[in-house]
Amino acid sequence: MSEPLHHSIRGGGYRATVSGTGAALLALDYDDPSYMQGSVQPYRLVETPGGHEPPLNYGGAVLAPWPGGIRDGHFYFDGIEHQLALTDSERGAAVNGLAWYRSWEVSALTDSRIQQTLEVGLHKGWPYQLRLTVAHELGPDGLTVTHTATNVGGYHSPFGVGVRPYLRVGDIPLDECTLQVAAGTRMPLDRARALPAAYSQSVTNTEYDFTRPRSLEGVHLDVPFSALDADLDGNSRHRLCGADGRGVELWTGPGFGWLQATTIEDAEPRALVLAPMTCPPDAFNLGIDLLVLQSGERWSGRWGLRGYEADR
Length: 312
What we know:
mainly beta; 6-stranded antiparallel beta sheet; 29 strands; globular
């Protein structure tokens, strides 16, 4: 009998739904009674519209071995030219890697934790052999997501990873929420191609400064942020909150130095994606924060989500 397409885990007052396609985080609910303030409904922190398979607009899916687009699907690595398949012909780019639409194998499963594994394999323009794992685990501190990538081939390989969770603050409309992003710089994108148009620039005194909570009413974003400000534990924290101070906090560990904020205007209701990434779009050409895995080398990085209250 085949495994179910969706998997449910729960722990620490949280419940999550994770897909077997793209290892996508489709939903995260917080049902702590004190946080819900008497509501009988769980407080939704993540919801991918429709829970589509493959995930709608890459929602919640693992984007590897590169996040974002590669310009013209073309790059050089170690002096060798590569031509990937153009998966977005309108933008003229190879977009979001080779993992988001694939079926991942469940390699470990408990009530509160699921780990999935994928052998990336060989593809047009991609001669590198990588093994990816992602573990979603729930506990009192919310959801922790741990990614690993192992080079199981004989050649060193370029690598990057990202994830696109759709954040929610219960049933509060996005225009009634505030966003806070602990980032000092942002990378301008060409709006038509969603590819870098210039190197990173300071957000200070610009419309992209979200270092303090700002209303999202009428705000449209598609912005890769970097220079993330870390707390003493080494993690950076970013928050989407309602007027009552409750909301969702996304934290990124040292391995995830980028965070792309995107408002999804054609979702119903309007949605916000906060995407932890190890590198910006087109990193294979820019060389910015590009990871290189030697044969046999293993990389690991973490990020997570939790319910947040301003007075905690």
